[in-house]
Amino acid sequence: MLIINADDWGRSVAETDAALGCYQEGRITSVSAMVFMEDSERATELAKENDLDVGLHLNFSEALTGRNYPVELGEYHKRTIRYLMGNKYAQLLYNPILRQEFAFSYQAQAREFVRLYGKPPSHIDGHHHLHLCANILLSKIIPAGMKMRRNFSFWPGEKSPLNRAYRALVDGWLARRYQLTDYFFDLAQCLQGKKLDRMATLAKSNNVELMTHPIVRMESDYLMSNQFQAMLQRLEIGGYALV
């Protein structure tokens, strides 16, 4: 099965509307919602009206743009941003000094999602993929059994052996605790690398997630194209709720 998931639902009005347009045309199957952001409240109502499959898009790296969030969260959030954005390797290292900040931020976002949507998320992923940072994974604060986004899947030769070994190690750890798809790809990378046919072949016999950002013109144009529609007609598609 192919899951076509749009990230950044609720981040802004433009991003929400771009994803909604694709969903209403049957070109995406689920979204990942950000909370405490500019369009989070409106996006919630749109998701309910359209019976959308919605996951939680955890945010540890971008300023909160919503109006109503706990003061303590705001302070903790600034610290995680400074740490993760200050060094490109920070996400690989567990920082015990920020243990409370990460835990509080995750719990606040998870509670806000349930308050908004009235139920737990269908899956969990992260802005800039930081749901896979060491402070989240090693703390085990995300409950076991959740459906989680894995690392990107690459073909042999696309990444260094060390990079691939690290990703395999993390995915192996994730698989022991969470529910994962078999493969995960980025639409932009697939378009640039002309990998969509290979991805579609995998989706015929595996659960594959294809991440997209419909606000990006190149991606929305492809999603709405006849070429993509023809591909979808050959595949089983669905949201994370069906995995």
Structural descriptors:
243 residues; alpha/beta; 6 strands; 12% strand
What would you note in describing this structure?
This protein is an alpha/beta fold. 44% of the residues lie in helices and 12% in strands. It has 10 helices and 6 strands; from the N terminus they run βαβαβααβααβααβαα. It has a 6-stranded parallel sheet. The longest helix is centred in the middle third of the chain and has 19 residues, at 99-117. The protein is globular, with a radius of gyration of 17 Å. The mean pLDDT is 95.
Radius of gyration: 17 Å
Shape descriptor reads globular
Order of helices and strands: EHEHEHHEHHEHHEHH
Distance between the termini: 8 Å
Our estimate of the beta-strand percent is: 5-15%
User: What portion of residues is helical?
Assistant: 40-55%
Described by strand count, sense and barrel closure, the largest sheet is: 6 strands, parallel
Lateral strand order in the biggest sheet:
4-3-2-1-6-5
Structural class: alpha/beta
Task: Give the overall average pLDDT.
Answer: 95
Number of strands: 6
Total helical elements: 10
Uncertain segments: none
Helix-strand layout with pairing:
Layout (H helix, E strand, L loop, with lengths): L1 E8 L3 H12 L5 E4 L6 H10 L4 E5 L12 H16 L12 H19 L6 E3 L7 H4 L23 H17 L5 E4 H7 L2 H8 L4 E5 L4 H7 L2 H8 L10
Parallel strand pairs: 1-2, 1-6, 2-3, 3-4, 5-6
Helix pairs in contact: 3-4
